Each structure stands twice: as C-alpha cells, then as structure tokens.
Amino acid sequence: MNLDSKSYIYSSNKSNNLIMIFAGFILLSIAWFVGAESKEFYFSYLTSYFYWLSILLGGMFFTLVHYAFSSTWSVAIRRIMENTIMLMPLFTIPFIPIIFGMDKLFKWLPSHSYWKTHDFEADHLIQHKLAYLNEESFIVRAIMYFALWNIIAFFIYYNSTKHDKTGDSKILENLRYFCMSPIGVLFFTSLTFAGLDWQMSLDPHWYSTMYGVYTFAGAFLAFLAFLTFTLLRLQDQGYLQKIVTTEHYHDLGKYLFAFTVFYCYIAGAQFYFIWYSNIPEETIWYLHRWVGSWKFISILLIVGKFFIPFFILIFRGSKRNLRLLQVMSIWILFMHYIDINFIIMPTVHHHDFQFGFYDISTMLGFAAMFIGGFKYITSKSALVPLKDTELIHSINHRNH
Amino acid sequence: MSKYGVLARFDSPQSLVHAAEKVRDEGFVNFDCHSPFPIHGMDDAMGLKRSKLGYLIGAMGLTGALFGFGLQTWIHSIEYPMNISGKPFFAYPAYAIITFELMVLFSAFGAVFGMMYFNRIPRFHHPVFYSEKFSDVSSDAFYVSIEVDDPKYDENEVISFLENLGGTEIEVLKDEN
Questions:
Q1: Residues of chain B neighbouring A272 (CB-CB closer than 8 A)
Q2: Is residue A268 less than 8 Å (CB to CB) from chain B?
Q3: 3-state secondary structure (DSSP) of residue B5
Q4: What was the ipTM of the complex prediction?
Q5: What digits encode the pLDDT tens for the residues A20-33?
Q6: Domain B3-50+126-174 falls in which CATH fold?
Q7: In terms of CA atoms, which chain B residue is nearest residue A269?
Q8: pLDDT, tens digit, 9 for 90 and up, residues B116-149
Q9: Could you tell me the residue ranges of all domains in chain B?
Q10: Are A86 and A153 within 8 A, CB to CB?
Q11: How much is the pTM?
C-alpha cells in the first residue's frame, strides 16, 4: 500500500508557531506582572494551567496504555498522542508562578493571609497535615512529578521518532517494556498526588479519597475530546486522508462515551460518600459550590458533562457522524474547563462564578502556547509512524 | 413430507463468505450460514441488518431506572416516610444507587430475554440436524442453507446455483413435521 506523502507530512510555518508560543509566554507574563500581588490572578492561573496540563497528562496515560498493550487500532493516531505529550517540557516552566504564589493559593501555609487574623496553631486538622503539606515537600514533590513526566515524554517521543528512521522492531519492544514497567504505576501515583497537591489542598480541611481518580477521569476525557477534535481538524486541512477512518472515530466516540460515564461515576461516588456521612469539614466543599451562581455551575456540570453527552453519544449513529462528534468534543472540552473552574475557583470567589481579565488572559496564553507548541512538534515528524508494521492493520481497522 | 430447504457444504471460511455474498446478491433472504467459529465480515456478506436488541435494552434500562426511582420516592416520601440521619424524606441523591442497579437489572433482562426472542431460542431441534453429515459443522465443515420460505426459492434452480458456487454434498432437507 502506498500512502501519499502529502497526507502524512504536516507542513506549517515554523516561525509562526514559535511566535505563537512566544506570544503565549508574553501574555502570561503580562498577566502575572499585572496580577502578581492579587490572589485572583494565581487562582485563575492555576485553573488555566491545570486545564491545559490535564489534557497533556490524559494523553500521557493513553500513550502508555497504547504501548503497554501493543494495541493495533490506535497505531495510526499514535503520533498525535506522542506530539501532545511532547509539550511536557514547554509546560514545565509555567509552573514557576505557582510556586511564587503559594502563600496566596494555599491556606495550609502559615504565611497565608488568613492566618493574620486567625491562630494557625489552633487549627488542629491542618497541624496534623503539616507533615505532608509544607512548602519544602510541596516543591520537592512538584519537581519529582515534572521529572517523571518529562522522562516519559522524552523517552517515548525520542524512541518513536527514531523508529520512523530505522524501523528497528527492537525499539518498539523497548517502548512496550518501558510502558509496562513500574513507570506506568508511578505515573498514576504522580497524577493522583498532583491532583491532591494542586487542587484538593486548596481547601486543606477537606479531603476525598476519590480525588486522584477524579483528576484522572477528567484529564483523560479532556484528552480524548482534544484528540478527536485535532484529528478531525487535520483531516479538514487535507491530512491523514484514508489513514484515519470513521472506524477510528467510532472507537474514539466509544471512549468518549465510556469516560463520560466513568467521570460521572467517580464524581457521583465522591459526592455520595460525603453526602451520606455528613461530616462538616467534608460537606463544606460542596456547600461552597451550592451558593449563588455556583449552584448553576454545579447543575450545569451534572447536565452538561453527563446527561447531554450520554444521551447523544449512546447511539452508534452519532459516534459515526463526524460533525456531531466534533461538536461533542468541543462541548466536552468546554465542560472540562467548567469542571476545573468549579474545583478551584470557589476557594477565592466565595459567592459567584466569575470570568474576568485574569481568566481570559491566562486561558488565551496557555492556549497559544499549547496550540503553537503542538503545531511546532507536529511538523517535526510524520503524522503516522511510517515504519510500524501494524500501521496497515490500523488503517484497515474495522468495528464489528 | 414438507421440505425445509437446501443444504450445501463449503470447504473454507473464505468460500463460505464468498458464497454468502453471492446468495445475498442473488436476492435470497431466508438463508443461513453455518460455521464452527465466528467469521469476521459474515454479517455484511449475508446482508444482515444491525440488531434491534440495543434499542430494546435501552428502553428496558430507562424503564428500570424510572421504576427504581419511582419505587423509592413512593416508599420513602409517601408510603412509609422515615427520618434517616436527618435527611429529607425526598432524598433523591440516595436513590441514585438503587435506580442505577434496577436499570442494570432491567437492561440485563432485556438483553437476555430479548436475545432469546430474536434468536428464537430455546429451540431443541432444527431441521438442519436431519442431515447426517451436518455434525461436521462443529469441526471443519461450512454450510449454507437456503430455506423453502424464501420468495425466490425454486428447488432445481437453487441446487444448480449452489453447485455453481462450489458447494458440495448438496441435499434437500425435510422439515420436522
């Protein structure tokens, strides 16, 4: 079988992409410069940062699974996943403002403004958590997560592109062993603790044992939506013709459907345990999200993140209708933002959902970085792993 | 003696799929293929439509969910209201689990019994078993059977048609009555 090289060589203007990344950095810097002293800025920044980072981490999970199980159907879309995770080094640097803003973000720091008027020593619950929640260990853990994620990203991307040139099957074998090794377990652990550190600890009294899975469920769902959208966009521009077919979209649609249900299951389970046991320091988290316009956001999440995608994606016809799938993936990406905002923002905006300058500028900044970086990496190598012997099977993949 | 149809043997999965395609293209509707194992692409080759079972399961699942929710609403807030850990009588979050479980139960009933209905089972005997050689179908033989009920059925034509397709050991099957 001969593939037309136009369908798998992504051509894009390199300097435009670099300008885009740079513009993103500038926008973020301006926002940081303006809001360096304001609490709201750091919360908006964390929201936007975690939104884009979670897409990337969901991609990392999917890539690890792809290699660990030597899956065939996803070989044709493998490179898009690898390009996404290769954004990891680019997304390591923007973590720095979060470290600078720690005393504004995290209430468990004695230097947080709340403790100017309250007695830190008297807060028994936080005192007991200080062994884990303190500045040094927070930074060390963050460094460990980013080290691990960067190792995974570089190892997979470097070997996969090397395989494009040499076609040595030993490389794929090594990749499989790498992804089956404890690295996969470590990745999950790091994702769980990253969720705990950066989101759950914003309200240090509150705790949920479901939280790590919740982070994962949201991240993976967002990545699936991003992947579906990206593939359709690339095909609209004339790439991947006759490589990615309706059958692949059908499978991605199944994934979207399955993880919509999974997300609902995890979010529901988290809620039920807290609702049943009715312990004040746990219920307060939901109470903060059930006042003012946050109530509307809570209901929007239930309806928009579960019921709407559930009843649309349940039909086979809608999973094979590419335009509908594209609309659904945009919708899911939008709902993922609402979800992250719903988790982080009520800590600072106690009464109402707000969307202001900081939210817009940080979202746009990260979007520019993400898209520019993605285009830049995508143009570096072929859109499909050309020397992979399974590619032909993936292209001819069919649902029965 | 009433007749059931014509049975023809093929030697390989490929020839069976090929034969099924030809039989489909010829316009036969009431025919079946028999093989020791599932063959990919057989549904298309036979021109089978997608199963309606999914819609039945969906309807049963919705019924179960509504039934579960309604049942608990009726019990806890109308028929026998009890104060459980200070929660309201109509404590709908607590109903979700039973609602979900009844949805699964009803869907499972829908799936199993619907499958049995669409497959017309349980059925203890089938006319193809009158053929003595048919038992090979559980090891290495592939069969196509075309039934008398088919509007295009004409015995001599069907026999010569199957012969042309490469079918061997063609026989006319009697019906159970």
A1: 93-94, 96-97
A2: yes
A3: strand
A4: 0.77
A5: 999 999 999 999 99
A6: Alpha-Beta Plaits (3.30.70)
A7: B97
A8: 999 888 888 888 888 888 888 888 889 988 888 8
A9: 3-50+126-174, 53-119
A10: yes
A11: 0.89
